[in-house]
Structures are given as structure tokens and as C-alpha cells.
Specification:
This protein has 9 helices and no strands. The protein is an all-alpha fold. α4 runs antiparallel to α5. The longest helix has 68 residues. It is elongated.
Length: 215
């Protein structure tokens, strides 16, 4: 009998404390639940919105390629430019490279500005970023001077990136074009000194050194 009475009193006291806690904290409880619901809804909306955005970018990228096939370069250029400015790490890069491959923009500064925009406004894995940097240097190597080229390639040739031998070959080819064979030989030799060098890159450097010896 006493045990039942004690249990009843304990249950009543427990419920009273819970009710008191609820009454005191219900605003915080409902606020927390509301915040969680808003966060979840916002995340779902953002994810769905990003998905739709990428689908649209993919469709526009394909549309631009169709315009190129149909010799409507101006429309293709405008679409690809809009895709670049949309700041998607995949389609912005693809669009920039397509503009380069198809020579849709003749102004060098405009191309460089697009490279800078892509690099500044997107997040990439390091090797992808280095690829874009290398492509930018490759494009600019057609008109920049020696000191500019050497300065721009420093981040690549002073690191262990996959694009280091490509940068060294580019500099070597630059000096061959200028008929400065001693300087060219220095960079081709650096290529051959690299460990785990791809056979094709080794062959390119070796072939260039043989050509220099025969000059």
C-alpha cells in the first residue's frame, strides 16, 4: 500500500516537473524545431535548385555545340559566355575550353579575363586548377615575353604537380621557337630528370634535344 502511494506521488511529481520544464522552455523547444524544419527545407530547396541549374547548364552547353556545328558562332559564344559566368566548376571550364578550341573569341584580354573569372569563382581539386592554369599559360605563350612566361610557370615548375613536365616542355618549345637552343636544352633536360615521367613526355623532350643537337 505504502509502495503504491509512494510510486503515485513520484509519478505525479515527475509529471509536474516535466510540465513545468515544458511551460518554461516551450518557446525554445518550438523555436528549435522551427529552425530545424527551416534548415531542412532550405537545404532541400537549394539541392533541388542546384540540380535544375546544372540540368539547364548541360542543355545550354549542348545547344552551344549545335550552334557551332551549324556555323552560328555568335550564338554559341554568347551561350558559352553565360555558362562561364554561372560559376559551375564543370560546365564553366568546359565552356571556356570550347571557346578556345573553336576560336570563338579573338580578343586575348577577354580570354584571359575569362580564365581569371573561372579560377577566382570556382573551387577545384588542385590538379584540375593546375590544368586550367597551364591552359591559360599555353594560350598566353603566343604573345607574352620571356620574363612573363617564366614568372607565370613558376607555380607549376616549382611544385610536384602532374603539369610540371608540361610546363617545362612549353618553356623549352618557346625557346626553340625563338632559336635560343641553349635555354631550350636546359628545360628539356629538366623534363628528362623527372621521376615517373610518362613515356610520351619523355619522348617529346628527347626528340627536341636531338633536333637541337642537329641544328
Amino acid at each position: 500500500m505504502n509502495e503504491n502511494l509512494f510510486q503515485t506521488q513520484y509519478d505525479v511529481t515527475k509529471k509536474t516537473k516535466l510540465k513545468k520544464f515544458y511551460d518554461e522552455k516551450k518557446f525554445l523547444i518550438f523555436s528549435f524545431i522551427l529552425v530545424v524544419v527551416i534548415i531542412f527545407a532550405s537545404f532541400s530547396y537549394y539541392s533541388e535548385n542546384q540540380k535544375k541549374k546544372r540540368i539547364l547548364l548541360a542543355e545550354n552547353y549542348i545547344k552551344a555545340k549545335v550552334y557551332i556545328i551549324n556555323n552560328d558562332q555568335n550564338r554559341a559564344k554568347d551561350i558559352l559566355n553565360d555558362i562561364i559566368l554561372a560559376n559551375d566548376s564543370t560546365y564553366s571550364v568546359l565552356s571556356l575550353f570550347l571557346i578556345l578550341n573553336e576560336n570563338l573569341i579573338s580578343n586575348n584580354k577577354t580570354i584571359v579575363d575569362l580564365f581569371d573569372h573561372v579560377l577566382k569563382n570556382n573551387k577545384f581539386e588542385k590538379e584540375i586548377e593546375n590544368l586550367i592554369i597551364y591552359k591559360k599559360i599555353l594560350f598566353q605563350s603566343n604573345y607574352i615575353n620571356e620574363s612573363e612566361l617564366l614568372e607565370m610557370t613558376k607555380p607549376l615548375i616549382n611544385s610536384e604537380t602532374h603539369w610540371k613536365p608540361h610546363a617545362l616542355l612549353l618553356i623549352g618549345d618557346y625557346f626553340v621557337h625563338k632559336k635560343e637552343y641553349v635555354k631550350a636544352k636546359e628545360f628539356y633536360t629538366q623534363v628528362l630528370s623527372l621521376k615517373n615521367l610518362h613515356a610520351e613526355l619523355y619522348q617529346q623532350a628527347s626528340s627536341q634535344l636531338i633536333l637541337i643537337e642537329n641544328e
